[in-house]
Known about the structure:
The chain is mainly alpha-helical. It has one domain (3-120). 83% of the residues lie in helices and 0% in strands. Helix 1 (3-32) packs antiparallel against helix 2 and helix 3 (65-91) runs antiparallel to helix 4. The longest helix has 30 residues, at 3-32. 33% of the residues are buried.
Amino acid sequence: MSTDSSWFNRLALVVAGILGAGGVAAAAGASHYSGDERVLGAVALVALTHAAAFLALGLASTTGRLLRVGALVVGAGVCLFCIDLVIRDVFQFALMPIAAPIGGIAIIAGWTLIAVAGAIGRR
Length: 123
């Protein structure tokens, strides 16, 4: 693993761990919470699926610049999306009026960047 991407690999593993733990907590909350379990279920699904993706990215030996940027955008989007949904559902107030849609758009944009990185090769 080259030193220029080792910071990214470590960060991706940290994000994978946080999303994995948060996803399991959201799944447990969906089972036991008296509110709308669909919201926490959606958070669990998004967090756990992206945790697996970040685990793979963290363990990858080659990561190009565009791939790293895409992954960072996805990570920020997932965090914003999940945090806003949990705060809205559990604490009954909004992080900001359109935080979840902004997070969702960031997730889509980040995955698109990852697709472009795959299509054009390592950059």
